[in-house]
Amino acid sequence: MQKLAIRGGAPLHGEVRISGAKNAALPIMCASLLSADSLHLTNLPDLHDVGTMRKLLQQMGVAAATAPGEITFSGDRIERWEAPYDMVKTMRAAILVLGPLLARFGDARVSLPGGCAIGSRPVDLHIKGLQAMGAEITIEHGYIHARAKRLQGARIFFDLVSVTGTENLMMAAALADGVTVLENAAREPEVVDLANCLRAMGAHIVGDGSDTITITGVEKLHGASHRIMPDRIESGTFLVAAAATGGSITLTDTRADLLDTVLEKLAEAGAQITVAGDTIHLAMNRRPQAVNVRTAPHPAFPTDMQAQFMALNAIAEGSAMVVETIFENRFMHVQELRRLGASIEVEGNTAVVRGVERLEGATVMATDLRASASLVIAGLVAQGETIIDRIYHLDRGYEHLETKLSRLGADIRRLK
Ligand code: UD1
Fold first, then answer.
1. What is the mean pLDDT of each run of 10 residues along the chain (416 residues)?
2. 98, 160, 325, best to mutate for ligand 1 pocket (most atoms within 8 Å of CB)
3. Which of 116, 139, 206, 415 is labelled catalytic?
4. What secondary structure does DSSP assign to 360-400, as a single string?
């Protein structure tokens, strides 16, 4: 199993290009199932999850012509309407094929995702929404089997804000008969990016980016070309890493408007931030000040940045509370950060972090994607060597992380 070895202490300096967003790329790749014409995607990140999604689509009969950072999908020969367990268990986002397959072919079999490290993460909202649109759904041998002659537009209220739930139903509704209204919908920028792509394919969608999305179904969608939005979580992760190490970095090809709450928190921690066009510059000339964070659906503070701020707070001046309201078990990084010398107490969904002067290198284990990112940040500031085990999580969601960090001056190596 591959590991990362980091020798901490070097402040990050320089420029780093931000990749396309994983959480926009995965749903948008699934949109290729909605049309027989070609969907040309650019700015696709080179990530393990993107490779898994491509294989899943190919296995169904979607043709995929690849070039660096680009794929052209053609959905004119789809003959298998199924997502097998082997693929869904490694990537929950595979559930996103359910809505498009059902809407276009009237039949879909998708393995139920199992448990995952950050909580039980059910898919009941996806299923209830499709049932409200007239689908007949049974659970057989661990698979969701959905059937419908043609989906019917419906008014659907989400009890909980769900990002992939909103995306799945938005794709299904694009080909349904009549008007679908999604209420208490996710407002995440990745939902808007998917809506932009679907509109380019001929879908009629309004209200994305707000909590009410209205989709008027059409008979057919056509081909399109779409550039994936920049990854706001990768952007935030590099900014926190620079702030924690007392560095000065410039992100290029990013968008500051996607990062409002994260930039506010970094400024509160003492960072100087300058935004110009598609670049963000951050400089940190002092020990960071601890900052409270509370995760909630967009536009509030993203749960996918919680672990990274925990690492920042671990070496900050003062104490802070970190409250996780989205996932019930997303503090797996706490035990590992403690191994590096962090002082963190957890009570329910709240962690109290007391900043320490310094962390010390140790061997730690990555448990999920963003937890791994927090360990990298901690390793970058810790004295001596930190070895991070199980870094396959990082490869699922960060494009060429150690290469990008090395170029910024970090002492980081992959041990094979
Ligand atoms: C997406 C993101 C993930 C991010 C999360 C929250 C992708 C591919 N992944 O995950 O990186 O951390 O949003 O911003 O975009 N829930 C239910 N029933 C459902 C669906 C969700 O109870 O049917 C619950 C979940 O367990 C969780 C909450 O709703 O507690 C939010 O989950 P959701 O927004 O659906 O997360 P994902 O879309 O899986």
1. 94 98 98 98 97 97 97 96 92 95 98 68 92 96 95 97 98 98 98 98 98 98 98 98 98 98 98 98 98 98 98 98 93 96 97 98 93 97 96 92 97 94
2. 160
3. 116
4. B--EEE--SHHHHHHHHHHHHHSBSEEEEE-THHHHHHSTT
